[in-house]
């Protein structure tokens, strides 16, 4: 049996643990262990714009000014390094107007099921990667129950 390579779309819950953001890092050891294993497996990691934004929002609400600055800088550096190709993940292309219109058209159905806009956009980007990379298994890596279990092309 041939094992297909895996692409992981990184959700906010994973990025928060990797960055070790206080109050959002309770699963850090498990996340880093899984990350090391997946790197050894030569898996690919994609970072959606939504995860960057949501992580920044959580960081902005840290009550300690020093920690807020520390983790905002850490996010800035991490995303900048990602854009430059210096991290194990690559940023997904940022959405354009056409993407937003298409995703917003479907959003009321997701909202009806209790899926927020951020998760909706991640799911839409997962669907795009599934179509684009048929030779890969594409999964969403998340600790949130609403995003777990998304897998295609297996």
Detailed description of the structure:
The protein is α/β, with parallel strands linked by helices and 154 residues long. The protein has 6 helices and 5 strands; from the N terminus they run βααβααβααββ. The chain has a 5-stranded mixed beta sheet with strand order 3-2-1-4-5. Helix 5 (97-112) crosses helix 6 (117-132). The longest helix has 19 residues, at 65-83. The N and C termini lie close together (12 Å).
Task: Provide a short characterization of the protein structure.
The chain is an alpha/beta fold. It is built from six helices and five strands, in the order βααβααβααββ.
Portion of residues within helices: 40-55%
Briefly note the structural class of the backbone: alpha/beta
The sequence of SSEs as H and E is EHHEHHEHHEE
The parts where pLDDT drops under 50 for at least 5 residues are none
> Hey, roughly how much beta strand do the residues contain?
5-15%
Any idea what the radius of gyration is? 16 Å
Characterize the biggest β-sheet.
5 strands, mixed
From the spread of the alpha carbons, the general shape counts as globular
Distance between the termini: 12 Å
**How many runs of DSSP E, i.e. beta strands?**
5
